[in-house]
Amino acid sequence: MNNSIYDESRVLDSYPIIVIGAGLGGLGAACQLASVGKKVLLLEKHNVPGGFASSFVRGRFEFDSALHELSDIGTENNKGSLYRFLERLGVIPEKIQFKQIPEFYRSIFMDGYDVTIPIGLEEYTEKLIELFPSEKKGIEDFLDMCQKVLEGIQFMIKMRGQYSPAEMLKEHPWLIRVSGITLSELFRKFFTNKRLISVIAHLWGYLGVPPSRLNAYAYVAMIITFLKWGAAYPVGRSHALTTSMVKAFEELGGEIRFNALVNRIIVEDGRVKGVELLNGDIYKCQAAISNVNPICTTMKMLPKEVVPESYIKKIYAPEVGPSAFSVYLGLNASYKDLGIHAHEMTISESDDMDKAYETFGKIDPPKYLVAGCYNHVYNDISPPGTAELCITTLQMGKLWHNVPPDQYHKVKDYLADKMVELIEKTICPNIRDYIEVAEAATPLTYYRYSKNMDGAIYGYTQDLLDGPNLRLKSRGPIPGLYQCGAWTNIGGGFSGSILSGRIAAGMFLKDNKEGRW
Ligand SMILES: Cc1cc2nc3c(=O)[nH]c(=O)nc-3n(C[C@H](O)[C@H](O)[C@H](O)COP(=O)(O)OP(=O)(O)OC[C@H]3O[C@@H](n4cnc5c(N)ncnc54)[C@H](O)[C@@H]3O)c2cc1C
Q1: Minimum-distance ligand 1 atom for the alpha carbon of 500
Q2: Residues ≥6 apart with Cβ < 8 Å to 104
Q3: Residue 192 CB neighbour total at 10 angstroms
Q4: Nearest-5° angle of CA 435, CA 439, CA 443?
Q5: Directed axis angle between helix 136-159 and helix 183-190, to 10°?
Q6: 440 membership: H or E segment, kind and range
Q7: Residues 308, 465: contact at Cβ < 8 Å?
């Protein structure tokens, strides 16, 4: 069938704009558009919203499939930008509540080093100085620099791109500097103590690349956001966040259709004209925002002949980032009885994060993982007298293409066992005695539910060449097509993905207003 022709008899309705995929980016875009009065249709292939941001039930436990710590929320008296957005939509306070996580993270190394790092700029600074007194000046200068980067970010947001590079360089030089170096290079400017560097860098798994490759801007922006607005967790898990966004979207007049897999984007005269579902239903539109990863959107959903070669190079140039391997444990003992005294625990074999990263590309025992025990802040998350522990390491999705189907369960069990072994050696020696339910998810699981390339959970790798400022932008390869989600704009994670949707919606509204197409 010629791609520019569609069957008129299958057209169900027409919308100014359609959003494809109800992951966090798609929800952010759809809610933003509905909040300014646009008629929007949101199409989701699954029967629930959220993409990665979801939950599932095993036995008497309901597990969050992704979220460990949510940034950019804050409190009523100290609102982060995500709080303000959700408040404007009517999500906060009516539809959801958040619990503040009392500490930042517990940083554990296999040599027995084990410290709990507090949240809040002052508390964090004091703790680091207490632990590493000889590095006091470097710690203070580092955190001063982080705040200057935050001022630069706030300036960029306020100016909405209306500033010159010279002005930025003059007013916010640190923002420019950190964008062009790796996190390791940045650390060398402030610190000498290896363990201090490891403790500060211990959340690098949240961005998927080790400090030697990680864009320093991405990490500094993440850390300072957590320190200023705290870390939060939604009551009712990620699922409550996404369902309350859907509710708000519908109250604002938006329409959502589940079990609606978009198979192709209809293009006529070089621009978006509609979308066709797998079952042949067609919705016409003037523009579409895709929350489906840009490679799949471009190469599978668009007709080949409309995509410029230069755009194809752009989407294939950055490296696809890691997926995850997780073990979800339902434990028949309370977190207190298990001796778990923090919400989020980062565990490393040693200070060598590059070595840890190497294990992401092998079926080898992991050398880095994070373990979240939600009961610590939210005891009702599991039945009385029980606890949930979600252990996650990262894995390159490509590796799993080579696992033969008849070996899949064996490999999965092997890795899950090695992860639990690390927990036994560091946090809870007798944890196996209390496991009532155990489930593991591999990159193939994450691919199956999200349809992201190789199951990537943060989109492209956030290395030096693909930091938040350099990522693929929202405008797609043809007029009327926009991208959002972890792969675009500032990158993955909950708040970054929601924000990318808001940015894509803003671009559509601007282009529409200016009659760009
Ligand atoms: C184990 C794990 C732990 C994590 N921990 C954290 C954390 O603590 N903090 C944090 O901030 N982030 C965390 N993340 C990362 C975060 O979850 C993701 O970066 C973010 O959810 C990505 O959102 P997205 O907008 O890119 O959408 P995705 O989640 O990729 O969703 C895309 C949506 O599009 C739909 N879709 C795909 N194809 C089609 C189609 N053809 N038609 C219609 N719909 C389609 C999918 O069903 C899905 O709903 C974690 C992720 C995982 C897996």
Answers
A1: 25
A2: 117, 118, 119, 124, 226, 227, 231, 344
A3: 12
A4: 145
A5: 130
A6: strand 435-441
A7: no
**DSSP-assigned letter for residue 232:** E
Q: Which residues surround ligand 1 with Cβ inside 6 Å?
A: 20-26, 43-46, 51-53, 66-69, 261-262, 291-292, 324, 326, 392, 446, 450-452, 457-458, 485-486, 492-494, 497
pLDDT, residue 3, reads 47
pLDDT per position as a tens digit, 111-141: 999 999 999 999 999 999 999 999 999 999 9
Three-state helix/strand/coil letters over 241-279: HHHHHHHHHHHCCCEEECCCCEEEEEEECCEEEEEEECC
Three-state SS letters, 101-127: CCEEEEEEECCCCEEEEECCHHHHHHH
Q: What is the identity of the amino acid at 508?
A: F
**Which of 65, 323, 494 to mutate to test ligand 1, by most ligand atoms within 8 A of the CB atom?**
494
326 CA: nearest ligand 1 atom: 1
Q: Please, are residues 476 and 492 in contact by the beta-carbon 8 Å criterion? A: no
- Domain 61-118+230-235+322-457 top-level CATH class: alpha beta
Fold of 8-47+258-319+470-513: FAD/NAD(P)-binding domain (3.50.50)
Do residues 267 and 104 touch, judged by C-beta distance below 8 A? no
Tokens 């990158």 correspond to 491
Count the neighbouring beta carbons within 10 Å of the beta carbon of residue 196: 21
Reported as type and span, the H/E element at residue 289 is strand 282-290
Ligand 1 atom with the smallest distance to the CA of 65 is 1
User: What would the pLDDT profile of 215-249 be if each residue is shown by its tens digit?
Assistant: 999 999 999 999 999 999 999 999 999 999 999 99
Q: Please report, for the chain, the start and end positions of each structural domain, with discontinuous segments joined by +.
A: 8-47+258-319+470-513, 61-118+230-235+322-457, 120-227
- Beta pairing partners, 482: 289, 475
Within the chain, which residues score under 70 in pLDDT?
1-4
User: CB of 265 within 8 A of CB of 481?
Assistant: yes
**From the CA of 207, how far away is ligand 1's center (Å)?**
14
The one-letter code for the residue type at 489 is: N
> Cα 182 to chain center, whole Å?
20
Cis omega (within 30 of 0) for bond into 93 = yes
Please tell me the predicted confidence (pLDDT) of residue 330.
98
Check residue 463 and report its DSSP letter: B
Measured CA angle at 440 (ends 439, 444), to 5 deg? 135
- pLDDT of the residue at 15: 98
Report the separation in Å between the CA atom of 208 and the middle of ligand 1, taken as the mean of its atom positions.
Answer: 15
Measured CA distances, 333 to 385, 388, 432, 439 (Å): 5, 9, 11, 18
Give the C-alpha separation, 182 to 506, whole Å: 31
